[in-house]
Amino acid sequence: MESTRRFGKYRVEREVLDEQRLEESLCFLQTSSRCTVPKLKRSVMSSLPVLYWLPKYSVWDYGMPDLISGISVGIMHLPQGMAYALLASLPPVFGLYSSLYPALIYFFFGTSRHISIGTFTVLSIMVGSVTERLAPDVAFLKNNGTNFTAEVDITARDSYRVQVAAATTVLGGLIQVVLGLVKFGFVGTYLSEPLVRAYTTAAAGHAVVAQLKNILGISPTRFSGPLSLVYTLKDVCSLLPQTHLPTLVVSAVSMVFLIAAKELNSFLSSKLPVPIPVELITIVAATLISNYAYLNSNYTVSVVGEIPSGLSPPSVPDVSIFGEVIGDAFALAIVGYAISISLGKTFALKHGYKVDSNQELVALGLSNAVGGFFQCYSVCCSMSRSLIQETTGGKTQVMASAVIVLVTILKLGALFQELPKAVLAVIVFVNLKGMFKQYSDIVTLWRRSKFDLVVWLVTWVSTLLLNLDLGLAASISFALLTVIFRTQLPTYSVLGNVPGTELYVDIETHREVKHKIPGVTIFRSSATVYYANAELYLEALKEKSGLDISKMIIYKRRQEAKQKRRERRAERRAKRQAKREVKCNMDHLKIYSDFFLSCLIFQDFSEIDVDIYMAGCQASVVEQLELGDFFSESITKRRLFASVHDAVLYCLNHRGAASFPRYEPSVVSMIVDTFFSILNCLIPVHTLGKTLLFVNS
Questions:
Q1: Burial (CB count <10 Å: 0-12, 13-18, 19+), residue 498
Q2: Do residues 500 and 426 share a domain?
């Protein structure tokens, strides 16, 4: 082969290659499965990424930025951990636990340098739906000896809810670990961006409704299952006359202050080295006001209550709960991973490093599984905290944020006992601003892709009405249906050759490309062919080429029978003209569950004395053909070519010299017209994947 490059042009001269010659000229390397020291080292490094980057850590380059970002993120962990614990229907201290232990585990096993693992709105809501379903208030009413009172045994209820949350978290973590070990990280690709954004937008609606009771100071009935959001809203509306005014005032003042402070923070973001911790300032100020104004005792404003100091010992979760929460655990595992990997890949692309999707699944699973033994609930990365970690200059997963959370749990937790729950509910509400902005996706998707818009709307509606678990299942099912539907409606096009090159482009979209090789037509499908759209593909082939194989076969057989009768009646007539042999090519072939379609093509074309040649088959396709016993004495690798251009050149250089018998044009005019147009123009060369060529003999 000779290759030269001058002034942006190149020229390649080589002989036409079929598959057999290509294999003879190449040496295929066999990968060794033997364990070696370098392989063992790479395996350990991939399983424990901290061993890769920690020895190379530069304190001078990364120390100060990591310390600043760690402190900033740790300060955000405190209010968000306590606030999101309310969404999970758990005491606030368990939100702090969930901000500590999983982050420590992720430090060793995670591959992303910028995401902040801890509590997150969507997962908190999902955990809350599980805890309130399995541990409702009505199951913990106090018994005064003769009958049940309306008073709830909060201690017993919260204790059982913690067990439910821990069991769900451990099970979800184990699911993530198993999926990661079997290299199932690609599962996140089935959750498209419109689906995830619509799901989080609908989850924000659930979060708002769940916090209305704390914002208004009312006690609505919490429903579960389909339409629970509608029933809860109906109950909240009926209780509006009973709104607790002091709680509403606390909520309103906190909301105005938070919104104003966040807007000021955004306005001054370019001038501030680190963002102002407005949430921490809010809970500190609210705690001081509540403590000195005696809001709980004088105005019955609900407060956080006792926050135990110190770390709780690990405990084995109640495995008997696993059977009741396996569906919820799977949903938590998938949603948490999808959110984390999407945000992790965004930061990795921005800063030029790689995130291993399978290792992320294992790291997140271990964070949840180990955290569940310490009474944590399901966690993933938080968008707001991750952005703070990245914008404040964070370079790695340092432990400064965990230290701040640890100090708060050990020494400072008791100081927040007088914090009003309404303030935590307002923090949740204001932090949902970003999710509410996602409603603008409707306008964007309307302009960009109607398919994605339908997925967005169906996901949003199903999540709102069917709850988070069933809504996720319905959304994924519908998204997969749209994928199948898209494969049923591919784009078929006829390609033309760019003069002087081996390139082929669509002649409809490139109107300046009108050049066709005499006797050759190239057909392309935008979708990969499999059993569900194979028939549609063949129909499109017939439509684009004007060729109906079945009618040609019927026509040929009729003509053969008629010819035999003529020969028996009159032997003195001229012998039938020799059948011509037509050589055709078949481009890139994809094999899936069987070889039915490809064998059918060979069989059909052999019926009309047409030889098939394949071109552009990848090595994996050739291997599948061999495993399926596709090759035989009549169909050898000499029928496979390295590229479409090789196949075209071979056909043009080896055209059959014989001609077709001249059938009488009075039988069926459509068939005759089609048949003779083929003589003048087209003979099919088939593909199951990319390109279809038609070659005239």
A1: middle
A2: no
